[in-house]
Design brief:
The chain is 34% helix and 11% strand. With 184 residues, the protein is an alpha/beta fold. It has two domains: 3-67, no CATH class; 77-179, 3-Layer(aba) Sandwich (Aspartate Aminotransferase, domain 2).
Length: 184
């Protein structure tokens, strides 16, 4: 683990203490309610658990701290991937997906993006640098791949994809910010 990662880990252990007010619980409470009592002006406070919750906010703060970037929590990795795809892609766009990674992004592309006019190609993770990135709107990389744990040079992929005008999305589930930092 790098010194930066060690520093992030140490700070993360104490992050909750930064925002504590007198009388707040020291340990992060799990808030499982779906509705909140809203006295006075409800602006700026949690209203409904499906789209805001103090526990989610704490998780987002912690992930943002680990990644050195803003963070938004989703109920699943595929929810996050779908949100990115549907927010960034439109008819006529083309994306590159790993052929050997988690299968659901390919399923999403086949069943939902293709009928909307978004085309996709696949490439093995080990071979991501073997082809051109020209013509792609988005390059989705998962390294190491799940379940095969194949890797690619993420820095090289990002550099070449950006030179070709493509956005790069990295699924870092397997490595986490402690093992790999795709945003750096």
């Amino acid at each position: 683990m790098s010194e930066t990662a060690k520093s992030h880990a140490a700070t993360l252990a104490h992050l909750r203490g930064v925002k504590l007010a007198k009388g707040d619980p020291v340990s992060l409470p799990l808030i499982v309610t779906t509705t909140f009592h809203l006295p006075g002006n409800p602006a700026g406070v949690s209203q409904y658990g499906r789209y805001d919750n103090p526990t989610w906010e704490a998780v987002e703060d912690m992930l943002g701290h680990l990644e050195d970037a803003p963070s938004v929590a989703f109920p699943s990795g595929m929810a996050a991937i779908a949100a990115v795809f549907f927010a960034l892609l439109k008819a006529g766009d083309r994306i590159l997906l790993p052929s050997d990674g988690y299968y659901t992004p390919r399923l999403l592309a086949e069943r939902f993006l293709k009928p909307l006019g978004v085309s996709f190609d696949t490439r093995p993770t080990k071979s991501f640098l073997d082809g051109s990135f020209s013509g792609y709107r988005l390059v989705f990389v998962e390294t190491p791949s799940n379940p095969g744990l194949d890797i690619c040079d993420m820095t090289g992929v990002a550099r070449l994809a950006h030179e070709a005008g493509a956005l790069v999305v990295a699924d870092n589930t397997t490595m986490t910010p402690y093992g790999q930092r795709p945003l750096d």
